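Board work, copied verbatim: Zinc metalloprotease
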Amino acid sequence: MKQTIRFGRISGVEVGANWSLLVLILLVADGLATAVLPQLAPGYSSGAYWTAGVVCGLLIAGSLLLHELAHSVVAQRAGIPVQRITLWMLGGASVLDGEPATPRTAFWIAASGPLTSLGLGLGSGTIAVLLNRTGVPGLIVMSLWWLGIMNVFLAVFNLLPGLPLDGGRILRAALWWRSGDPNQAAISAGRGGQVIGYLLTGLGFAEWLSGSLTGLWLVMIGFVIITSVTAESRLTRLRISLGQTTVRAAMSQPEVTAYVAMPVERFVTEVAPRTREAVFPVVDLDGAPTGTVALHRLARVPATRRASTTIADVQRPLADVPVAHPDDLLADLVSRMSPAPDELALVIEHDRLVGVFRGQDIARLVHLAAFRPAAQAT
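↓ predict structure ↓
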């Protein structure tokens, strides 16, 4: 099963969902159909409750998407490209291809999501009240009312002052504006996120021990917050350590390059064995980069089709690959990459491949940063 299903593009941003989003929709539908709606709007059939529950589950997923789209649209207007939006069981994430240049920009990017959720919540609640006055069935009215409450809750929860929540990013923007140091501001906001994460985890365990399954949900949310803020804090400290180091200083030359029109069979038998690398840059006949290709993707091609399948058919397209200019800050590139072994950033100058930077090199940088003086990494 694919981890992420792509739905297409909205406002130029690729939108997808992790399979766990389906779990969220089913949990919402089950909770509404079997418990919430029968109490709020009694007298309807089981089928009606389940229909309303499924629709509300889908609308919640849509609300999460609008929340993330708000972040993305504001970021795009500020000149920051957005790689993708991914929805999953506990919310969504917008992956920006860069950092805000000013605290004002950072503030509005962060605030746009909760403001959108608040607007959706108030709008849904207002519609519910108006429809109730016109004699619309109570099941529809209460479904809209519940949807409004959930969106307001989403807005309020996201405003908690700790990373990686939107409230933490607003706090970071405020501290950045006050101190002029975005990295120190991020570290301070990260501490708030750790406190929130541990509080939610503790509260969740207490609820679970008292017999409430809701506690497990809080534990899960708290764990995600702790994990995310730990990763962000590590990246921030790495950014401080890297300072003004450019990509040029850290990039390397690829040992092997794949040509876009080369058959897979020829590449795996004649070219790939020359190196111990597992992911390779791909270029066209003019030398312009077109993407990357990993051995594990090539291995999925059936042996009977490798002679007729080209690298172009299985490559990861350039639009999905981290790209940098040699003079870009290395810290900015690292923030857009995964430390996974098959992650490969292409360094491009004048439409030509001039170097690569591998995801596995990030771990090396983290270890080297540990040897820097403490004053440079706090």
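Residues 46-77 form the longest helix (32 residues).
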